Amino acid sequence: MGQYKRLKVPANGAKIGWKDGKLSVPDNPIIPFFAGDGTGPDIWNATRLVLEGAVEKAYEGKKKLVWMEVYAGLTALKNYDKDTVLPQETLDAFKEFRVGIKGPLTTPAGQFKFVCLVCAAELNDRPAKCPKCSSEWITPRFRSVNVGLRQKLDLYACVRPVRWFTGVPCPVKAPEKFNIVIFRENTEDIYAGIEFQQGTPECREVYEFLTKKMGKKIPFPDSGIGIKPISKTGTQRLVRMAIKYAIAHKRPSVTIVHKGNIQKFTEGAFRDWGYEVAKAEFRDQIVTEAELWDDLGGKMPAGKILIKDRIADQTFQQLLLRPDEYSVLATPNLNGDYLSDAAVAQVGGLGIGPGANIGDGVAVFEATHGTAPKYTNKDQVNPGSLILSGVMMLEHMGWQEAADLVVKGLEATIQAKTVTYDFERQMPGAKKIKCSEFGAEIVKNMGAGKPVAA
Ligand code: NAD
Fold it and tell me: Which CATH architecture has domain 171-188+229-346?
């Protein structure tokens, strides 16, 4: 095992291995985790209780999750030097132990110079204490730690399964029709961070190059400029992962989502390369939409996966109007970002949407919402997102029995109408409970036999 300065590798655990494209999971896997900033510790404590409860119940002590704390965001400032938010050791541990889980982190936006990692206040100077919350944990503005984690560990797919759980309040009429897994490319597109600030010499140089040398027209010279790289390699590994998932989980279709009608050489190429990898590597298992109508008279052969594509804006409409015609989506980074949050809003909001960032042999599971800073240390927010990310993690490890128990406990708890404030205010007759109590209820309701009546 690797040598770490500030991290303690638990002596009672073993490393998850990776061979021939598959994980090999011991009965006592070491799982690196960090709770995150803001409400992260609250949702992590509830999640840990639930995951440990499910594993204990499912395997009666034969299997056990062995946690290894790593640091990022505020805990990194506290444990390393005061300006380090993503220590190399954290990256090394996620890489070495292959499966990890994380809470949300403060991510500064805008053009201010410093940020308070406790309340996310944005500041232009660095006072000894935050003027909003009096914390001393103020650090220079940095690029997103989440994006850094994804890029440095090459976690190229952001995977978000979006489905409705009976009883969850939501804005659409038939949420049960929604059961879609979104694979969003995670490393390229405008998220590559190639941007030039308006007014700088670099931006002027790029402007001159584009307008004078490449003959492109940019409407106004006082433009900031961003570059959007989308590669064949990045696209094909993402679409390949989505198709493999569809095959393994017997999903009927994979839809390539893109804005190729406008951005032909990036988004349009994403579509073309997606079809190319589908036909080259999965020929016997897939049918394209063109083949379905041109060659097969619209009759889908049993057991095959339909590969289709849709323009991004149309996809937003389709997910609202005909969600049951979609099963797995593969999207570039930015469109996938918007689409994932819109999709989860349809089935009850970010408080209950799970997510994972997955690469070849390394995966980090995460709550999809942010740090909800105004609820920090109040034990109030909904831990559902991180708990369901834990379910994805158990499934990824092949611990399906424990994963099923968590879902069963969560469904029973929601149906019993014992929920956190975000659901309670939308569910007539519901009882509002704390974040920690919600976790405890789930554990209690695991294996409770029949679901509790709504
Ligand atoms: P947010 O997700 O923290 O909050 C948006 C809204 O949802 C707020 O009203 C919040 O109170 C509510 N909310 C969030 N999580 C909830 C939960 N579990 N239960 C109930 N309600 C919940 O987004 P924001 O306010 O835009 O961002 C706050 C901070 O989090 C920022 O620094 C942002 O950059 C960061 N952020 C981090 C991640 C991540 O780590 N993956 C994702 C998004 C935002």
Answer: 3-Layer(aba) Sandwich (3.40)
